[in-house]
Fold these 4 entries.
Entry 1:
Amino acid sequence: QVQLIQSTTEVKKPGASVKVSCTASGYSFTNYAITWVRQARGQGLERMGWISGHNGNTKYAEEVQGRLSLTIDTSTNTAYMEMRSLRSDDTAVYYCVRDNDYIWGRGYFDYWGQGTLVIVSS
Amino acid sequence: EIVLTQSPGTLSLSPGERATLSCRASQSVSRNYLAWYQQQPGQAPRLLLYDTFVRATGIPDRFSGGGSGTDFTLTINRLEPEDFAVYYCQQYAVSPTFGQGTKVEIK
């Protein structure tokens, strides 16, 4: 069965960086993409970025452009999200999701990781 | 960017009733590339429908979707206790965006 397993809770200070992993199994990693979605406590869903499992192409939301880096390791079927210059308003649960569009980044999200809580606090 | 506006913000209903949720887009969603998700408290969202009306794997047929262009609906017939949750719409015709959510709560 399809699974996306994410790394555990991170606590960081403002200005620091965080790197979250997402290991996929149960499907052909290179035939899909991974999108990263975050959700602040009590808030809605925000798409942050997309990376193709096919060729590593990326797209980033304007709000995090320049601070977010998405990468993949196809030898381990793992996607990584690194965010730099963290601020308190980056505190949220971060989800990796399987995206059915590995070409254009215009897909729906059929499987979700369990979420990784990132807390940014001094 | 396509902005999605969901209404109502909260829907108070009893088990067994029908829920009708609305998702309105700021511009036409081409090819009806619209999905719906359900999120239970403390859990990740779950895909319910894609391409406006196609049910995802394992989703019961009391969930149905409709609409086109800028107006879309999610209908839940005969609400079950596990259906009380928050629902989000998402368009993927262009760079994907989500609606702000509708909470279906027990009356």
Entry 2:
Amino acid sequence: GAVVSQHPSWVICKSGTSVKIECRSLDFQATTMFWYRQFPKQSLMLMATSNEGSKATYEQGVEKDKFLINHASLTLSTLTVTSAHPEDSSFYICSARTYGLLTQYFGPGTRLTVL
Amino acid sequence: RKEVEQDPGPFNVPEGATVAFNCTYSNSASQSFFWYRQDCRKEPKLLMSVYSSGNEDGRFTAQLNRASQYISLLIRDSKLSDSATYLCVVNMRGRDDKIIFGKGTRLHILP
């Protein structure tokens, strides 16, 4: 099956710093990428959807200036958590799919801890 | 009514038993349906798509009932390795292409 990687797999940072998470599709062109957040024992919450070369579409309640998404190529999307705070600590997961197909393939996730 | 609803469980089932989960969805415009499994502290992995005619993959059978707006997953001869959270996923195509995840059903297979 299709492979999606994420980097880093985990990160610890101080409050107020910014953290960038990369999501890459390794063997297919990801025309659409999704960013999710999952708190412990909660379901996946979609944060934003990004199509290559376009601005991301954010879900209600997600601050676009705080969670910067860039999808500049067909194999890479980045999520930058700006001025991170402890309440941003979560498991961030990206997924990708290619044009015309509905199946999403998930990255392994990035566990962010903000101290 | 929630867009996608699942019984959170946990379902505690002895090894070798058959277990079934249901998932209901509220939007009749929903077009595509999937079951994913998620292991603890891991990303979701696609288990199977759900087709209108029903489909089977080994010990797993998925069915769709559009009239009643629910999908089901049946696991036969359950294994210890089937212990996971099973996520129901509904995709609505249209002007806003929305993918909705259920909260998941936790399954524990007991030895």
Entry 3:
Amino acid sequence: GAGVSQSPSNKVTEKGKDVELRCDPISGHTALYWYRQSLGQGLEFLIYFQGNSAPDKSGLPSDRFSAERTGGSVSTLTIQRTQQEDSAVYLCASSPRGGRNEKLFFGSGTQLSVL
Amino acid sequence: AQKVTQAQTEISVVEKEDVTLDCVYETRDTTYYLFWYKQPPSGELVFLIRRNSFDEQNEISGRYSWNFQKSTSSFNFTITASQVVDSAVYFCALRPYSGAGSYQLTFGKGTKLSVIP
């Protein structure tokens, strides 16, 4: 399809395991964002990519979280040594150029459950 | 620091009623953008509208209208003659024009709207 694709849609893992979440943005979009949505905290910014670089990663909650983007396209968000508080929906979004007034196109998210 | 407050956590209306979703924001920036997004049960946030801080003209799109008042830092959203398909969570968001944080959207906690047939 032509939208933002995220996989897996659901991920159940055990505390202490590492997980990788994938985002495939809309073709040609240079800007890519990760957000986290949880009941208590609402929607929180995690990281912004422009091409393969991340000018803003100030929202990553701890050094257990990392993200990369390769080829200016697919991005992977990695959470190491998962904790129960990491349980949330992880949303990816993209936009054409990263302009401040651009609308974001969101994927359907990955529901992460840490047992 | 930016802050967006959506005081209404949940609203229920009967179909065909009008409903207004409130959004109040805080920012020290003089230039910024405001957005509304809709999140239906499928989970994917969908863009509804964008407004520049220097443009206070209200906007109407079909059954949707938005009232931006810079003097009260509010950007309210009204649905006229609500329909069941309007049931969703609605988010108001703010993004600075420049500077630290300008790569980020700051979202409110959202208002869950239920339209009862």
Entry 4:
Amino acid sequence: EIVMTQSPVTLSESPGERANLSCRASQSVSTNLAWYQEKPGQAPRLLIYGATTRATGIPARFSGSGSGTEFTLTISSLQSEDFAFYYCQQYYNWPPITFGQGTRLEIK
Amino acid sequence: QVELQQWGAGLLKPSETLSLTCAVYGGSFSGYYWSWIRQPPGKGLEWIGEINQSGTTKYNPSLKSRVTISLDKSKNQISLKLSTVTAADTGVYHCARTRVGFYNYYMDVWGRGTTVTVSS
């Protein structure tokens, strides 16, 4: 099973600032990585797949980078609606599909 | 606009069987895989398993002996059964439309989730 580790667990940033969220895989997953946003009481939302491709309707301030074992989700200028939980997910080798434990992005 | 609506029993006793249904509205049912994912309280997401249009399933090895995912094409519904539940099965359960391709496997539409609590 491929283990995904996200850091930090909690990230405190101010609106308008740039946020970098990290995801590390226990072995190479190539670019077979997705990112999701989750807010309490709402359905998770797909942000990025293929490590770098924005999903339909996702604002350009969200970008993904990385390959192999190291990945980053960058939010270039934080909006109030961006404060949420973020999860990475690998699909290089399954079953099982595996997710990171999540990063909570909170307002500083 | 595709919408996934979920329902099922929210409170179970240990050893009972969890049973959830997910209905697909407003979009195509065929041509996609469908997954179930859960989230224990205070923890991350855990993939439970998937089913394709042929009814072929794949399950998380950690749950495989207890899980059954099925689909009803006539009703555009997907079902999840998890037998012999314990408190460790408490959490929010989501169904999700899943795009599967040669280089892709991601969930692009999610249900809001059903909270399941296992308690005696």
